[in-house]
Amino acid sequence: MENFKKSSHVVLTSHYKQIFKKSIEIKWGAKNPLERGPVVGTISEKENRNAIGTHSGSYTVYRALSIASGQYERDHKPDLKNTDMTTEVGPFDSWSDPRKIVSLDPWGASVSKTFDPYISKGYNIAPTIAVTQAHLQIPEIGEAIEKGRLKPDGKILLPSNDIKVTKAAIEPVWYLPGIAERFGVEEGELRKVLFEETGGMFPELVTRPDLKILLPPIGSSTAYIFGNPKDLSDPNVTLTCRVHDECNGSDVFGSDICTCRPYLTHGIEESVKTAQNGGVGLIVYFRKEGRALGEVTKFLVYNARKRQSGGDSASNYFYRTECVAGVVDARFQEFMPDVLHWFGIKKIHNLISMSDMKYDAIVNSGIEVSQRVSIPDELVPDDARVEIEAKKAAGYYVPEESEGPGDIKELDKVKGRDLDD
Ligand SMILES: [Zn+2]
Hints:
The chain is α/β, with parallel strands linked by helices. Helices cover 30% and strands 13% of the residues. Strand 9, helix 15 and strand 10 form a beta-alpha-beta unit. The site of zinc ion (ZN) has 4 residues, from loops.
């Protein structure tokens, strides 16, 4: 029995004769943006849409809630006056290379300028990238100044200990044939699994093979730039870079079971240093909580690790995750370098990361990495020893001079705190 009032009429998105009829073709990889075509994922004029899904990643559901509650006009068109980038980015050759960028729209930051001929005809085209300026106040940076590791210079690091940055927010825009190629799967198969495993969220994945763009309801990424953003594309300017995956527990709340926040703030400190010495720093923050398995899974794993016989140990670190989640890691670093290519990066002088997966993805995408920098030992919290030793044993990068347990027996000895402690 139905216990809700049905709305009068719903047009199914899979009926392409009713919607998508005035949609602009997208030629992904075309050099000229007008030939490439704008991504139209807004729903104010359904007939203009040429993408599956809608804007704002996972927040699209909140937008729907605001509409349902009557607080948001369904046909609202954003007023983009004064919203332009504070610093121009690109275009670069990588923007028209479908092997380099498939998970974001390189023209997504300049839609009001680039696609004006369409906007003036009434197309509702929304930006998927925004660039602005900010000051950062970070306790660890204050500590680095106190200990003499950093010195305010009045330009990058102000006397107030504020760091001046440029930052860019980037929403995911997936070109499905390119995404399938990165994973080495057939596009039709990828579309079918995406449709089925989201509980049938987007029927067009299977009914409209002509629509090649998906705006997936997932988290976005944010880039923080220290120094002049234009220097990112110059391989002769020293670049220090960290690509960081979200860990709310550590990054925001200071939980000590992992090295995420210490690694992040170390990356920021090194980025500031590089920028002060005439180079440029970049931190890219990806919303991929708990290796993209989510925080519920992550907390379940913490309990399973701490309660297993013998307690939390480095030798069982990855095994416990696989038992609970079915997979050790779901971050898929394959798309991560796209953001780097958006900035036109060709060379990273200092990569602040131990992850072999991140390193491989960056190098395989055609970016040179001169040096990998691991976290200084004194920055690793005690309870995070389990994580870091397990990662080293699993093939994460370890500098030659560093010491750690060599074999599995030794790995067994690296223990974490008990649940009750
Ligand atoms: Zn963490």
